[in-house]
Amino acid sequence: MTQEIIARLRISLNDIKPDIWRTVDMPVTSSLKMLHDVIQGAMGWQDNHLWHFEAGDRRYGRPDLEWPDRNLTAAKNVKLGSLIERGVRQLTYTYDMGDDWRHTVTVEAIGPAEPNTKYPRFVAGERPCPPEDVGGLSGFELFLDAMRDPAHEEHQQLRQWYGGPFDADDIDELVTKHTAAVIAIRRHAGKAAYERSRTRN
Known about the structure:
The chain is an alpha+beta fold. The protein has helices spanning 32-43, 80-85, 136-148, 155-162, 173-200, and strands at 5-13, 21-27, 51-55, 58-61, 72-74, 90-95, 101-112, 121-126. The longest helix is centred in the C-terminal third of the chain and has 28 residues, at 173-200. The relative contact order is 0.19. The model has no long low-confidence stretch (mean pLDDT 91).
C-alpha cells in the first residue's frame, strides 16, 4: 500500500481581527465535500446554509436540482489533490450566502502521512467562529459589543438568543478534535471496506 499524502491547510475567516483560524491536515485524496465537512466541524459552524468553494474562475459546491447552476461543479466529485496538481494553493470557501462568511483556505505544506494516524485531523486554532445567523460581520460586531458589556441595551436579549455567555478568545478544542476524529474514523472504515471488497474480487 502506498503512503498517503497529506496537505496541511490553514483556514482563516476573512475580514475579522483578531484572526479566527484553524489548521487541519487533509489527505489529498479527500473530496472538496469532505473538506467542507471538516471546515464546518473545525470552525464550529452547524451546516445549516448553502456553501461553495472558489478556485480561480471555478466554483464547487452542492448542486441544487431545483435551481441548476451550470457554473457549479459538484464538490463531491473533485479531489483536493487534483486542484493542487493544477497549481492551486489557495481556495475561497463561502458559507451562508446571507451572512456571507468567507474563508481563505491556504495549502501550507504537503508531505507523507504520519504512521498510525487517521486523517483528516485538527492541528491548531484560535477563537470561536461567530454564532449562526448573527447577521454577518456587522451583526457579529454588535453581538461581541453587547456580550462584553452587561450594561449594553441588547446584552440580555442576545445572551438569551445565544443561550449563555460567549468567550471570544476560547475554542473548545476537545469538541473540535472529536468532530475531525469522527470524520477520520468514518473515512478509515470506508477505506477498509473498499480494500476488503477488492480482495474478495
